[in-house]
Amino acid sequence: MISVDKMVLSTVENKGFRYLMKITVPLYKPPSRKTITKLIEAQYRSLKEAYYFKRDPIQYWKSVKHTFPLLYELAIKYISILGTSVPLERIFSQAGNIKTDERNRLTGENLNMLFLSSLAFEDWKLE
């Protein structure tokens, strides 16, 4: 952090800078090192928290769950939607393996039964 390195503060504490401030803005009193350190640390914490929530929206909605319960439910419902079509492509691939050129006369009902019977038990999502 800037205040820990004391790079900026060393300039502000020089006699020349203090004289300049006294001439240009006589009523201005530069903040102390302690005050600046507190301000910078507070700003750092708030920006760090804001950055964290930008990276993880689910964590953000969990933190405001009690403040916005209805919005929380909607957000969790729609944020958890997969952002990929891989599961759908896998299903179409399985169906394509069942309905081949040699089995081109399958009805929709028979294709559906063959497809469902080809799924693993875990894919049925039964509890």
From TrEMBL:
GO cellular component, one term: nucleus
Occurrences of domain HAT C-terminal dimerisation (ranges): 55-115
Entry keyword Cytoplasm: no
InterPro entries found in the cross-reference section: HATC_C_dom, RNaseH-like_sf, ZnF_BED_domain_contain
Annotated compartments: Nucleus
Pfam family, one: Dimer_Tnp_hAT
Gene Ontology MF term list: protein dimerization activity; zinc ion binding
Keywords annotated in UniProt: Metal-binding, Nucleus, Zinc, Zinc-finger
Key word Transcription regulation present: no
PANTHER family recorded: ZINC FINGER BED DOMAIN-CONTAINING PROTEIN 39, ZINC FINGER BED DOMAIN-CONTAINING PROTEIN 4
Protein name in the entry: HAT C-terminal dimerisation domain-containing protein
Organism expressing this protein natively: Trachymyrmex cornetzi
